[in-house]
């Protein structure tokens, strides 16, 4: 083959590569080029962070960049100054070294795994062409420009352009599961010009260039040109990417274009955006407040120390090691001394403990069998360990529809040809807004493999050989990118889109069978007769074009362009004649399909003049080989082809809802979460699916629909909608189209800087001026005001970019926590834009999963992920942080109070060993267990009472109020822990049998340390609600280990433990004194009485819904344990018992979507009204009454959460909601319902 022309090589710009140039069979020039542009020449990859030499300095630098670690390093330096520190540096060094060591060990283990993985991959073997022969080399030795030979099942070592394959059609199959998670095979092709190069001689003599884009991370885009005699366009159809695997192909040959770090796989392996929870950000603010408290405490003690030195210091000169005689200098030094002594107020172990708890919570999510999908053998996975508690604070859920709410199992069910509808009725989507009950999916029979959409009417039409019908199915059999495979005499289809596969299978059922495809031809069988077409051009479908077009030449030489796409796009491409003659009837049929919730596509065709086509094909080929703005040039040329279409017909595809989708959405809405569904479907389709999945309800009608086509119309619709929601007291839902969304959505930075408009005088100007931005802002605020009043929002006809923009808008403007869930590549931008992204392992690959923070197999698992695990995680983290601050306040304030009795000298009340081990040994394990395993109510009660979830979004369990309460409790317990033994000592103490007074400083120190250890652990026991054997073990470890360690340290000879000399014997003398034990029990009694009084006061007089549900659950258990009453004479008592039963709830997923439940258990008569989560702001009655029907009656306790219960036997003729709606007085209710219990009457009074 002749050598290519000597093309000029473009130089780099600012040292960066603008065009990748590969010289075939010219290693020397390839090496020079890669060095010139600083590109990766070899194929070695490195994902590890450290080397053996750089680990220690690099890791320590990273750790000391954290504020807490750096703070304690500074304290350690201060402790080395004798004039300041009253503590040994060991007290700070031990916990600091422990934290740094644990973190370093974890980092080293993670990096060691990366090193081993890198070594395994780099040492894989592959075959390359060197000096005219095939040799085997390691992957790391492959360089740019190498010609590589791959065999079936081989992994692709680098990004390469296919030159030839073993197949006659010049194609090959690859599996991209390791790249994008998709398991279906994809087809790639070699250029026709190189398809015959299969031996060493022809390949080694190949001369030319490959020019393509510089290295980038776009997996689905490759623009290049192969320069031999003539330029040959290259696209992603000609490229195999690193991470793929060759399948069903004997061998292929390819040239390496990107190696090592330049491969698209490595370019996509960058670090994901670090997400921080709101608790993290809140925690940082609280830590700053703690620093302020610490600063104030140190300042107070410094001022008092200076004053004491000025007044009394001279009297103690002989006892004190004075560093200066100046009182101000001494006070300044004491400031730093107290900064060291009170340093545990900001605990170094806080962040380490938080990470350990999050890891434990993530493991529990993965181990939950209730979120295991047996059909696909898929478990829930927490792909990040930093966002668990954020799951319990979600305000908005943004969901995709196809594959997320639906099964993404498409079935071609109906079609429109010539204005007539053919096919069978849809199984779902029949739900009209007026229906009162949801469709029972279990009653839908799963069609067998042999069942088709063809009914008797259509069978007769096929028998007539109608040209319109034939043309319709011929288009379906030809216009697609489906791959075929012959297996045991049958044809199996594989497609990247389930819609395409359903359409091709529908054509097959009608007798139009897609048989074979090569790189140039496509063959179909029409009623047993084979037809061959030459495949000339394919313009692929994408989210911007929303259509696909293929140009074919039939055997008779005619040229035809076949196209299929979204109806709103295809309508604009029809000829004027077709738009007036054929479109009205087809549009009416499309509306009928949409009412049934079916997915639709419009089919068109255009006969092409041969001369016109040849001219167009030349321009299209030029656009395909362009290396600059290739997509824009192709789109521009395609517009000339995709116009003046004739209408062929329309298709309707059914996609069924997944199991328990209505129940899941209903439960999330009861939890106070606003649910938005974002879909690309037509407005009618989206609305009917919304009613089917219970996102929309009859009580929300009429819906607020915003579908304006210009700015003023959208503004008017939003204004009317806002007036409606403000004037009516009922639930509302908003339906908005993608076109209307373009006006409230703010422009991107690029749009603001580049979008131009043409003025009336012919000049151009920036579109987004200050005035225009202000107008857009007004519409945006109007849109947000309407959505704030709506219970649910349905966005239809939206693009992937709009999905992300909607999420970003709500997240930033409403300062709310947003969760996005989807299953496909078009949902990735939305998932990344949300605070939390959830990916569903669906049929569209794993792109969404790979971009997500959590992955689940089915949408129904989302309610358990949020309402159970999310709420638990938020509860656990809140309990941990509140307790952690409390115990450190108690610890520090004992030091603080002691300062008033030691001349403000920063003398420590605890010994050095206790200071170092308090947070590590005596009080760490129990709270870690609570942080991982704590439950307020079990999972069944959580799902049965989704209103409990509201504590998270409202941040009730961990806010400034709870933080200040923890501070107050710590200060209070610190007062008791110090002053009870201190006053006892001042009163004289007692004498032991040896005549030694048991009231010295060392005894005081010992008793304070003992009391602190026991009090903080007992306080945790009071707060713990869920007890396991692990709780019992760890809660005893701290207090008991105190006796063990102190007994070893201070009861033995001081020659063995050199550091404990001052405290030698204090253990034995202290515990042998009745004085110590009296102080011990008195102080613990005072602290625990206060804690128990607080606990029971809140539970009885200020109960929150959690307390109420726990009491209901206990009462239900007691009722279940009582024997059933069968005697007629006891039936009245049984009736009373049923009425007193505190847990009464039912689920009714009807059109009204109401839940009956009694929210209030039996309580003292003093309680008349119970506030929801005792706070200053008014309770959210809306979620308890508007969305629920509280019906008094009996419920079978065996009914599990999430299932439809048996019929409820009401004991009251009216429901609470009915009473409220009809303004019936509570007294009237009592007269009408004499069997109402006190708790039920309280509930009625409250509502």
Overview of the molecule:
- With 1247 residues, the chain is of the alpha+beta class.
- Among the domains are: 20-43 and 142-269, Distorted Sandwich (Calcium-transporting ATPase, cytoplasmic transduction domain A), CATH 2.70.150.10; 370-403 and 661-757 and 765-861, HAD superfamily/HAD-like (Rossmann fold); 409-427 and 452-656, 3-Layer(aba) Sandwich (Calcium-transporting ATPase, cytoplasmic domain N); 869-1107, no CATH class.
- 44% of the residues lie in helices and 17% in strands.
- A nine-stranded mixed sheet has the order 14-35-34-33-15-27-32-29-28, with helices on both faces. Strands 17-16-26-25-24-23-22-21-20 form a nine-stranded antiparallel sheet, sandwiched between helices.
- It starts with 19 loop residues before the first strand and ends with a helix.
- Residues 25-92 form the P-type ATPase N-terminal domain.
- Residues 1113-1134, 1177-1240 are annotated as: Disordered.
- It holds the Pfam family PhoLip_ATPase_N.
List keywords for this structure.
1247 residues, alpha+beta, Calcium-transporting ATPase, cytoplasmic transduction domain A, Rossmann fold, Calcium-transporting ATPase, cytoplasmic domain N, 9-stranded mixed β-sheet, 9-stranded antiparallel β-sheet
Write the layout of secondary structure elements.
Elements: E1 20-23, H1 27-36, H2 55-64, H3 67-79, H4 90-122, E2 125-130, E3 133-138, E4 147-151, E5 159-165, E6 171-176, H5 177-180, E7 182-189, H6 200-204, E8 209-212, E9 224-227, E10 231-234, E11 239-240, E12 245-247, E13 251-258, H7 264-267, H8 278-312, H9 327-341, H10 350-367, E14 381-382, E15 396-399, E16 406-417, E17 420-423, H11 456-463, H12 467-478, E18 483-487, E19 490-494, H13 498-509, E20 512-517, E21 521-526, E22 529-539, E23 547-553, E24 559-565, H14 567-573, H15 576-581, H16 583-595, E25 599-608, H17 610-624, H18 630-641, E26 646-657, H19 661-670, E27 674-678, H20 683-692, E28 704-706, H21 711-727, E29 733-737, H22 738-741, H23 749-754, E30 756-758, E31 764-766, H24 770-789, E32 792-796, H25 800-813, E33 818-822, H26 828-833, E34 836-840, H27 847-850, E35 854-856, H28 861-898, H29 912-922, H30 925-933, H31 939-944, H32 960-986, H33 1001-1023, H34 1029-1051, H35 1066-1071, H36 1074-1101, H37 1105-1121, H38 1131-1140, E36 1145-1148, E37 1154-1157, H39 1181-1186, E38 1193-1194, E39 1209-1210, H40 1216-1221, H41 1226-1232, ...
Parallel strand pairs: 15-27, 15-33, 27-32, 28-29, 29-32, 33-34, 34-35
Antiparallel strand pairs: 1-8, 2-3, 2-4, 4-13, 5-11, 5-13, 6-7, 6-12, 8-9, 9-10, 14-35, 16-17, 16-26, 18-19, 20-21, 21-22, 22-23, 23-24, 24-25, 25-26, 30-31, 36-37, 38-39
Helix pairs in contact: 2-4, 3-4, 3-9, 4-29, 8-9, 10-28, 10-30, 12-13, 16-20, 17-18, 19-28, 21-24, 28-30, 28-32, 28-33, 30-34, 32-33, 32-36, 33-34, 33-36
